[in-house]
């Protein structure tokens, strides 16, 4: 089997994502028709915490098909750049940008590994470095990620991260109260199963993937070590997905039932550069 520290983890993950891009692009989950008609995927707590982006330069790391990236452009960002290691995803993002009337000077998309972002972006820095939900688990080295991400933050700018909480990632499906994995472990969680989160029954061939859990302390410490000041760290007792069997839908969120123990399921942070 491939080793987690060798190059094969990246090849496996990229093949897995590349194959799923057309499935995602055609899905009701991403609903490109609604997005093109005006759906704002950055709305909600993220928009509130990031604040006014009017006139700002924003880069979205691990942007997938670019809906969040383009939502920030719609919200007034002067320039947005989305970066993802999946070339098919970047092509979909470019197509969406064109259909929305955004030229590459306003909304550009780059196919590159996040660890190579500095070189891929030509040393450009940004007022806002944004990483959306479900991105960090695909990276083995959080310290290296923080070094690269921090280097993209311009003086006076900030990094904003919204993610699934690492504690929630290690709890059991049945109750969400028992540890099934090591919270502090560095070994990958390896899966080899068909389907995808928009269609669990999809017939897929490239199914081997590697994920890592990054403890909250590791994320915060890595950003601080690269010259960023933590402005806030928020933990939430709800999530956007049916992460455990016991979660109950509450509007657009999923929560544990009243009277049961509650774990943090998502978090967000903002870290600024002087």
TrEMBL record:
SUPFAM superfamilies: S-adenosyl-L-methionine-dependent methyltransferases. Keywords: Methyltransferase, Transferase. One of its GO terms (biological process) is methylation. It comes from Glycomyces paridis. This is Class I SAM-dependent methyltransferase. One of its GO terms (molecular function) is methyltransferase activity. Residues 249-274 are annotated as: Disordered. It holds the Pfam family Methyltransf_25. Residues 62-157 form the Methyltransferase domain.
